[in-house]
Design goal:
Helix 9 packs antiparallel against helix 14 and helix 14 packs antiparallel against helix 15. The radius of gyration is 30 Å and the shape is flat. With 491 residues, it is of the alpha/beta class. Helices cover 41% and strands 18% of the residues. The protein has three domains: 153 residues, tRNA modification GTPase MnmE domain 2 (Four Helix Bundle (Hemerythrin (Met), subunit A)); 113 residues, Gyrase A, domain 2, CATH 3.30.1360; 151 residues, Rossmann fold (3-Layer(aba) Sandwich). The chain binds guanosine-5'-triphosphate, potassium ion and magnesium ion. Magnesium ion binds next to helix 11. Its main location: cytoplasm. Belongs to the TRAFAC class TrmE-Era-EngA-EngB-Septin-like GTPase superfamily. TrmE GTPase family. GO terms for molecular function: GTP binding; GTPase activity; metal ion binding.
């Protein structure tokens, strides 16, 4: 809807988002009236999706949900408008919905041509299923010839092979899940560690989406009040209306700011941590890497400058995926290859989540790298200094295996500190969330900094849009390929 707004003779024309109108509080004096709307109390599973995206009948697609590994059973999934006709063609008649039944599959059941397999069949009519549209599953004997015969029968019946993530994309398009839940499902499939699994499960169940939608609902309420102030500037709106909306805007700004200041915990759990081992040549860095990896991953020798390239191994610490990086010994060198190794080591110092600064007594540094854990090796030869720059030094001997349990505990504590959520609130888990939350935060700050009602309204609207992009309610057409392209085929 186009509207013209007047302020000191300035005319502003703008779009009015339809959803703002629904949220106009019944009673402007009561700050809670709009919070009690069904939208706020709504149980999840009716996630609003942009109507422009909700393309109606979607052609049937199919994919093997169980992958191509050798197995006893292969699950073929089919979803889309016309799934019922396809299933009837394969079986003759539709089985009872949501009940497993053992049925003979035919290329064409009416003419009894080409028996394909005896399969367990699940007919899952929409909308109460994963994708929100008519779907079925065929639990086949997993022979490659059976799978490919069934695939070709499905193509003949009018289905096409699914793109990666297309089933989940449809679940999003039909409002079964929001974008954060879709991302949670992708992470759940990829999860390798306990920490990843727990975080992804919470996100796929909507904990992050609920947080973001809660903010959006509150902001919609604020925006409705702001609209009222714009539209009725001369009427007798009580001054509390403006005061209340400013208070609520500031509260939202602070909550989003706290969410952003989570030290990247959620992102770290998702992608794992990097710990770099750095220090002078012959400190025993490669020996430590091998000890932590429990295998001879790196060459160890008494020759200073043995390690040239950075060597990465993946291990698990405190339930978190950790990449350990062994680096070239740091020293001045004229050897161009070693110099390149030192350059790479410094890169890892800068980019690692945690640095183990390793040395031996004679080569103890005067300064510590920022945030580094100082470890003095070879205490079988000479004792370790107690502290460096007031930070206690961990003394170990990799040869005698002393101090290694303490080192392990120390590293695990660091990992927990870097990943444990400070509060019970779900952490953001992707750069996409961080970017959108930052935009929302900026606009809320700007809204509080301006006095013009129209300008404040505009900032609030832009903040609202950023929050809408988080869950996928507005302006996400450009994001969908990126989000769903990360899935495997069949999900
Ligand atoms: N005495 C003693 N020797 C050790 C200990 N730990 C490692 N070494 C020896 O120290 C030498 C150097 O070990 P490396 O692990 O290759 O040292 P590095 O820091 O990786 O060395 P560069 O790759 O050359 O930078 C090897 O001969 C190891 O066997 C220890 O605790 N005590
Ligand atoms: K060495
Ligand atoms: Mg080495």
């Amino acid at each position: 809807m186009k509207r013209k707004l007047r302020h000191d003779g300035v005319l502003i024309t703008r779009e009015q988002p339809a959803d703002v109108l629904h949220a106009v509080p019944a009673c402007l004096n009561c700050p809670h009236s709009a919070n009690d709307s069904p939208a706020t109390n709504r149980k999840r599973k009716t996630v609003p999706t942009p109507s422009a995206l909700r393309t109606q009948p979607l052609e049937p697609i199919f994919a093997l949900a169980t992958g191509t590994a050798r197995a006893a059973i292969a699950v073929m999934r089919v979803s889309g408008t016309g799934s019922d006709a396809i299933l009837r063609r394969l079986l003759g008649t539709l089985p009872a919905p949501r009940k497993a039944s053992l049925r003979r599959l035919w290329r064409d059941a009416v003419h009894r041509t080409d028996a394909l397999d005896d399969a367990l069949v699940l007919w899952l009519p929409g909308p109460a299923n994963y994708t929100g549209e008519d779907s079925f599953e065929l639990h086949l004997h997993a022979g490659p010839a059976i799978v490919s015969a069934v695939a070709s029968a499905l193509v003949e019946a009018g289905a096409r092979p699914a793109e990666p993530g297309e089933f989940t994309r449809r679940a999003f398009l039909h409002g079964r899940i929001d974008l954060t839940e879709a991302e949670g499902i992708a992470d759940l499939i990829e999860a390798e560690t306990e920490a990843q699994r727990k975080q992804a499960l919470a996100q796929s169940e909507g904990r992050l989406g609920t947080l973001y939608r809660g903010w959006a609902d509150r902001l919609r309420n604020v925006l409705a009040r702001q609209e009222a102030l714009i539209d009725f500037p001369d009427e007798d709106l009580p001054p509390e209306v403006e005061a209340a909306l400013l208070t609520e805007t500031a509260a939202l700004r602070d909550e989003i700011s706290a969410h952003l200041a989570d030290g990247e915990r959620g992102e770290r759990i998702r992608r794992g941590l990097t710990i770099a081992i750095v220090g002078p040549p012959n400190a025993g860095k490669s020996t430590l890497l091998n000890h932590l990896a429990e295998r001879q991953a790196a060459i160890v020798s008494p020759v200073a400058g043995t390690t040239r390239d950075a060597i990465e191994i993946v291990t698990m610490l405190a339930g978190v995926r950790v990449t350990l990086v062994d680096t070239a010994g740091l020293r001045e060198t004229t050897d161009p290859i070693e110099a390149e190794g030192v350059k790479r080591a410094m890169f890892h110092v800068e980019h690692a989540d945690c640095v183990v600064q390793m040395f031996f007594a004679e080569a103890a540094p005067d300064h510590l790298l920022p945030g580094a854990l100082p470890v003095c090796n070879k205490i079988d030869l000479a004792p370790a200094p107690f502290t460096i720059e007031d930070v206690p030094v961990l003394g170990i001997s990799l040869r005698d295996e002393t101090g290694l349990a303490a080192l392990q505990e120390n590293l695990e504590r660091r990992v927990r500190e870097l990943t444990a959520s400070g509060s019970i609130a779900p952490p953001l888990t992707r750069a996409r969330h961080r970017a959108a939350a930052m935009v929302a935060h900026e606009h809320l700050k700007a809204a509080l900094a301006v006095d013009w009602p129209e300008m404040r309204g505009e900032e609030l609207r832009l903040a609202m849009r950023a929050l809408g992009r988080l869950t996928g309610e507005v302006g996400v057409e450009d994001l969908l390929d990126t989000v769903f392209g990360q899935f495997c085929i069949g999900k």
